[in-house]
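Pipeline run #58 for the internal structure catalog. This entry was flagged by the ingest filter as a single-chain record with no existing model, so it goes straight to prediction. Upstream metadata was stripped on purpose; only the residue string is passed forward. Reviewer on rotation: M.T. Logging verbosity set to normal.
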Amino acid sequence: MELDPQQCYDALCARDRRFDGRFFVGVSSTGVYCRPVCAVRTPRREHCSFHPSAAAAEKAGFRPCLRCRPELAPGWGLPDIPGRLAQAAAQLIGQGFLDHGGTEALAARVGVSSRHLRRLFRAEYGVSMLELAQTQRLLLAKQCLTQTAMPVADVALACGFGSVRRFHAALRQRWGLRAQQIRRDGAAARTPGTLQLALGYRPPLAWQAWLDCAGAQAVAGVEQRHGARYARSLRLRGRDGPCVGWLQAWEDAPRCTLRVQASANLAPLISQLLDRLRRMFDLGASPSAIDARLGRLAAQAPGLRVPGSPDGFETLLRVLLRREGREAARLLAGLAEVFTSAAERAALQGAPQGLCRVLPDAATLADAGMAELQRCGLSAATARTLSAAAREVAAGRIELQPWAALEPTLQALRDLPGIDEASVQWVAMQALGWPDAFAADDPALQRACGCADAAALLAQAQCWRPWRAYAAMHLRLRELRAPESAPVAAPRDATADARAAYAAGVAS
């Protein structure tokens, strides 16, 4: 990636948050590297060098700033980097892929040769894959030491070092620091019994609009909104099997960070947790570029993001049941009630009040029979589509992750029985993270835009490319906030409905 030194220095002098995470500043007079929004006195131009990634800055001999904390910088959105393959590989590395596999396996996972991937990586990040992986491990460990009460040994293992000795050696060799020094610096931020995390973003962030969108489809017992806070249960899958926990998120606008409190049992999977959080809240987006393209459409909620889910299959599950209209949230709550095991309920002890179950994963629904799904209230057609989708995802034939190949994944979704193009496009937006996906066949978007059909909506959406997914979210928000002509019936008790339907089916 080519960086213009003068433009970078101008952004540093202005403390322009639009450039946060896009480059890092190495300061020769102090030996540290900073984010361009660091609050310290601006260094002289001749003391500054500019690097496309934290790993490149460390390779040049700099250690991370303890004040601006480079590990909190927002990441990249998919269209920001010309090489999507390099971004896909970097996301897998961030989840710890290289802790248990080599670069050959990583290249095979993203569908290219290792030589080609190495070339792409150096062009985009200025370092090798192994160098980036080591920097990400160290930055993740730094975040764990400053923001959590995890023992140092647990931090070393959770961040992929294999042993405490290797962790301490890497700290001394790369940064000249000890773990106790880093932990002492962040002592005030730690709260025993939970994980207290902070994730940076580029302002603005339309947090209230995000809450409105999430609240409109909230599933009882799985997620809830309390004022300006959002809480939910989630399931992560590690090498030792699934792990169920909970999280609660709220905005810290003055610091341009999202604060997250999570259950302590998710600590061994913290790298995966952080990656899922960034995807859920779309923290890698560049709202200034997006809003400039969308123009007046973005005026209602500048900085609106495309919300995701902790798991790609959950996105598909929600999209398939969204066709049930007002019944969708009730049906999702019913599935969660029936398929949440006693052990999973026990894992949610201590969660915010009201979180008592978790949505089923692909493997669980793949094992469920059609009759069992229909007893949860699903129609035969929806149950058939959901069962087929769950089997494909559980078997690994469909991978609903941002690094999955786009067109083959979309075609595999289209081949499922009973799935329409609007559903495919919503999955591309929210699970695959594709910013130009657009559900023109969705009647709600057509109504919000005042278009008679999909062709008219597609023609109008041409001016929003390559950010049509964000345009779809603005249209959806407009539809949610529009005054309704008819009163809405009171929601039914999802838990009671699910239990009654399931009990009746078993009895019969």
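catalog note: The first helix runs from residue 5 to 14.
catalog note: DSSP finds 25 helices and nine strands in the chain.
status: ready for reviewer M.T.
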